[in-house]
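G.,

No rush on this.
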Amino acid sequence: MRPRSSQPELRFVVAGMGVQGVKRRAIIGESPCVTVDPFAKGVDFTRLDEVPVDEFDAVYLCTPDSAKHELVEYAVGHGKHVLIEKPFNLMPGHYSSLSTLAQSTGATIYVAYNHRFEPHIASVKSILDSGELGEIYTVSLSYGNGTAQLVRQSQWRDTGIGVISDLGSHLLDMVDFWWGIEGRRIDFMDAQAKENRAFDQANFRISGTPAVYAETTMLSWRNDFQCIIRGSEGSAHIASLCKWGPTSLTVRGRVRPSGRPDERSETLVQADPTWAAEHDHFLGLIAAGDAGNLATSREIARILDEVTEDLLGAT
């Protein structure tokens, strides 16, 4: 970490006032903030470079993927901290150059994967780290929503590998959070485009230890998340997320040689806490002089680039 002295209240820019930008702006609350969007009504500026560089400290970047690299480079080059909505997929050399630039200007670059801050997902991290489940045998993750039609109506979202990048990147980050992702890859079992131009349904295996079997879909007519982790000493089960509530975590302890397991369960019914928690995490990284998580983003991008080449050919 790079030491940094205490700072006054940060001044923010939210660039891109779509669904995610509106959420980020709400979380910033009463802190000084201006908004940027070339099309949305009621914003303060239409371009990031119109905002005087001495009037902001950090950028929440909620733009289409194609614009992200240039905007991050601009912000970091001026010593501004950047939170980037996932995914952040660049050419390999661009990660190194951005990292070098951030080191020279003292900027923090954080790619946002807010599911790490979901209470049950964080609890599973603690359970895994404690060794309570023993050796992990099998992992299955399923993440689905019913956004196929909405995505098809978007010129920039219904492209590339579709749901594999959109929802699959969250699952890859979850795997990194729990076990690490370096050196892993995706082995495809099935990827389909039922209603969209890009893939809207995919089942795949994430290699490594433990291997993870995953499903991502835009064809789930009720939003859903399911996780099952089975180990030599027990299992953990997550059903749903706070934003769709209720969400439950059940932990079962193995009984030998067989029998009904010991079981504890927690169900939460609450508003989605992840946006505020991630905002606080970002501020904490900045205060600590932490460079951010560009290395993790680079690994996720490498995996998704390999998938893109496998499914669509070199681009």
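When you get to it, here's the other one too:
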Amino acid sequence: MMDYKGCKCASCHKVLKEGDDIVICPECGAPYHRECYAAEGRCVFSAKHGKGFEYVPPEAKPDVNANGPICPVCHAQNPPDTLFCERCGQPMRGGVPPQAAQSSPQYAEPGMSGTGMPGGFGGPGAQYATGDVMTQLHLAKEYDGISTQDWMKYIGNSAPYYLYQFQRMDESGRKTSFCWSALFIPEFYFFYRKMWGWGALALAVSLIVSIPSLLSLMAALGIATALPLSASALSTLITVCGLLNWGVRIASCLFGFYLFRQSAARRMRAMKDDSTDDDRYRTELERRGGPSRVAVVLVGVLLLVCSFAFSAWIGPDRLMSAFYLY
């Protein structure tokens, strides 16, 4: 039988030590603390069972979390500089001393939010840790079958806000929320969050609905167009496109978080299926997750190029005429 001492628990990622109560997954051989396996309720690699997957323990490393803070919710020990619990995602706010975990964490009464208001977002029976607002966000262990810890790694710095929105969706049963950046600049928001398809669609709509306004400008400057539209028809078309533009923006605002959640969950599941072990999967989450500032810059450059190209085509004299006209 393989000696798993010195390896990491597949759930809490703490090094297994002499005297620990260790259990092994009968399907793949992944090691756990008994209490961790009981808390998970299943093997974290269960999605890979039956596909020839066999757990291969990584090279044993020293436990760098020995002096790190202990989560007040799940009692997992974390790296010294952690901001969120690596096991359950609970905000740590710079760390909780290890000795603090020996006393039971305090919670608000069932049905109360962390601020003491009735009907908090946890709903009846929910418990919230006391403290400042961040530590009162008692998040679920997983969303869409993906652990909160993995969501934290994938989303990046904005993870608490996004997970809070996910929590509200699950508790209300609705797919809508308010994403203000998606309201004002939907194409930039979708590309920033690596939702390439939705970003391309929002960008295409933004360009298409601007065409009637450009045609109106060209008509005012005396530039002939291939579309035989009367002034009244063009005015109606501008109104319709304006309404369509705002309809897309409002829909993006209401469903922005939900669309991100669905897109991110698909990508994370694909990464997990392609990863040979848990450590590599989490490395891929950090490498391929987070926002894309490069995509935002490229979209901005594309719009600037289109604007400059149109201005050059009109010509400086007509451009000045348009400036005085409007």
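Residues 180-325 form one domain. The CA atoms of residues 176 and 254 lie 5 Å apart.

Enjoy the weekend,
O.
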